[in-house]
Amino acid sequence: MAAGKRILKQNVLCRQIIFLLEGEVQVSLETSKGEHLLSTLKAPTVLGEISFFSGEPSSAHVTTLSQVKVIVIDFDVLHQQVVEGDRVTGLILLNMSEAMAKRASAMTRQLSEIYAKQQEMETQVSEVQQARTAMFGEWSFI
User: What is the spatial distance between Cα 82 and Cα 41, in angstroms, rounded to a whole number?
Assistant: First the structure.
């Protein structure tokens, strides 16, 4: 696939798992304030696992940054291979699980940092409000 191609679209169901073998992609999130870059991923990695496993629409956009080489597997094909006891499919699922666990761990760390910053900001706002009250509280004529 060429650079600049959108592989996955946010809020669109895609029951395919995409293995990025070569190249680089960006993951972005569409919000009410526009599109925001979440991360850049380099091969080898797996894409589309949330929608693939949950049956929910994709949670983000994925766009190629360079020419990429991918393997795409439909959910029904992988499911049938699991039912048949294919060992290679078991290894694929194990690797996909590892990738998802690493992403979930990274997301948890990022959320922890966001909450810590939020708490720090709330403390600073409270200190500013207290200082304002101390300075100007006596000037109130109402």
Answer: 28
Residue for token digits 């499919």? 89
Question: pTM value?
Answer: 0.69
Distance CA 64, CA 52 (A): 19
Q: Of 79, 71, 65, which is closest to residue 44 (Cα–Cα)?
A: 71
Dihedrals φ, ψ of 43, to 5°? -65, 150
CA angle, 51 then 55 then 58, to 5°: 30
Please name every residue paired with 36 in a beta bridge, in sequence order, or none if there are none. 29
Beta-carbon contacts of residue 52 (< 8 Å; ≥ 6 apart): 14, 15, 16, 17, 75
Torsion over CA: 69, 75, 81, 82 (sign): positive
Q: Which strands make up the sheet holding 69-74, listed edge to edge?
A: 45-47, 16-22, 69-74
What confidence tens digit (pLDDT) does each residue in 51-96 have?
Answer: 888 889 999 999 999 999 999 999 999 889 989 999 988 888 888 8
